[in-house]
């Protein structure tokens, strides 16, 4: 399968609109070229300025002012061209929270395709999985759960017990699964990402960047388009209980094909979302927003920017003190 590398090339001889791309040697990438830095669009001329991507923002698209993003980091990529349309602190070191689950899903779908596991395969829940800190599906040690239900728990409910159960079933232990996660990260060229667990609960070793998360999400969606059936859904039912996520981005600006959120006290509120409309295919990453609502507001602004739509009239977003919980969601 192909590998989309992070947006980390360098402008070639200072020529506007051209960039070199680092291509991994083990597997030849078949996806779009990855362009680095910050792409400034003015009068249809694209100028790549890698240094600006550390903290600056895209100036504008024709007729549209650059959006304001309150989160610590943000990135917007045109998936058709690999061009970065907006970047803010895209290479800044951040805690991923439950965006870690994108890699958990990647490995799960890889094993499904290889025939190592099936969607209907029963998975026995361990005591370790049952005791994983919230958010949880409420799995009980000793019960068996179809592998597909666990994947829904990981992608839709962001359930940590489901992620732990998947990891143990595929690798035998959390530790061995994490080794696979980091091996995949190296293969993808995620040079600023380290995984420490399969769910995203706080661990000081677990770090990433907006740029790496974008590359991870793009690899998952391109290599395993079937993952969109889960990441693009909003609910599932198991044992009579409905697990539902209410996220405004699905209806406004709409066109969402995949979405994953994450939160811990250290990370803040994170979200990555892929959306397509009117021939545009976009990937947006927001890391370190102050509130859940602000993370969605930032993502919505970037998606509208990429779609070439004017921003709607701003409305106040309620700010609140983060809950004192040890959670990844």
Topology readout:
Blueprint lengths: L37 E5 L2 E5 L10 E2 L2 E2 L7 E6 L4 E6 L12 H13 L8 E3 L2 H4 L13 E3 H9 L4 H12 L2 H15 L21 H14 L4 H4 L3 E4 L2 E4 L11 E9 L3 E10 L2 E10 L2 H16 L22
Antiparallel strand pairs: 1-2, 3-4, 5-6, 5-13, 7-8, 9-10, 11-12, 12-13
Helix pairs in contact: 1-4, 1-6, 3-4, 4-5
Describe the overall structure.
There is one protein chain. The chain is α+β, with helices and mostly antiparallel strands and 329 residues long. It has a domain at 97-256: DD-peptidase/beta-lactamase superfamily (Beta-lactamase), CATH 3.40.710. The chain is 26% helix and 21% strand. The protein has helices at 101-113, 127-130, 147-155, 160-171, 174-188, 210-223, 228-231, 292-307; strands at residues 38-42, 45-49, 60-61, 64-65, 73-78, 83-88, 122-124, 144-146, 235-238, 241-244, 256-264, 268-277, 280-289. The strands form 5 sheets. The protein has a 5-stranded antiparallel sheet with strand order 6-5-13-12-11, sandwiched between helices. The chain has a two-stranded antiparallel ribbon with strand order 1-2. A two-stranded antiparallel ribbon has the order 3-4. Helix 4 crosses helix 5. The two termini are 29 Å apart.
